[in-house]
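Entry type: protein chain
Record version: 2
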Amino acid sequence: MDENNNVLTGDIAALRQFRDVVDRNINSTNQVENLKNEEKRLDKEINSNKKTLKDNIDSTVKSRRNDIASKYDSEIGKEEDRLKKIKDKRSKAKEKGVKERITEETAELTAQNKELKGNIRTALKGERLPRFCGSSFYFALFFTKGASEVFFCGLMMILMCFVLPGAVYYLLPVNKDNGFTSKVILAATYFVVIILMVFIYLLIAGKTKKKHEDGLKNIRQLRERIQGNNRQVRKITRAIRKDNNEEVYELGDFDARIKEVEDEIKRISDEKEKALLNFDENISNDIVKEIESKEMPRINDLQKEYDETVSQKESLEEIVKETSLKISSEYEAYIGKEYTNLERIDALIKIMENGQAQTVSQAIDLYKRQS
């Protein structure tokens, strides 16, 4: 049909031409929808394959890199175990040397203490006193001297005058519910226990301190010499342990072995660093190429299919656009949108094929009357 002609005046050939345009528009539209679905499917499959490829590359590269690192770490771990054992042996050797040095430098004081303790035992025997009288406990109670012994005496007074009577009262098999009676018993218990403790204290003092005061004072002096020697021993011990000069302990062999192992650890660590750097710069790229050479052909085929689908879809979309504009401008404007579907166009063609109408306009009028 000529573009300048009105479709309403057209014959059956014009109507059939119109039908071809509508049919082409419908078929192209359907194909576009199918191709859109195919485009989505291919895009999803491509992205899925790319993700799988990336994950495969990442996991493989990471695994291979970890394999290299773990081998070096294993060797470093072995050397660190060796280093720890050598350092432990060195520490034990030093501790042994320190103890021997302490023993050597305090030998004279230790010997003096041994001799002084022997003198104390001899003095106790000479005074016919029990060994108890040579103890720190005895001298703190009966020959109190110094802040520590004063504190000890105060503590003992609290125990004997308050704690012990209370404990005795608690253990007594008497009824403690009766208020007045229990108070009397408690007071009596305190009185008796305190009197008993004072009696025992005075008894011991009378039997020992008063009768053997000079001998006990001599023993006290011997004990003070021992305490002075002990303070000197502690001072020497602290000085030796703080001394940073280790040459006297002959630890050179251990130090040489420690340096040897530390150098070996550094060498392995440097090799590890170089190996990992080489992996990152070279080997990892080869791994990527190897994996891509296996997987990329399939992805490229999918990409090619995707590109062809998009191109075909765009071509059909252009046809849909052209036919839609043609239908709108050349046909729909004259006959109305209701006569642009294939069912009614076929009905109009049938009317004209039966000779009931010569023009499209006549066929439409007859169709309306028949409807």
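Comment: The chain has nine helices and no strands.
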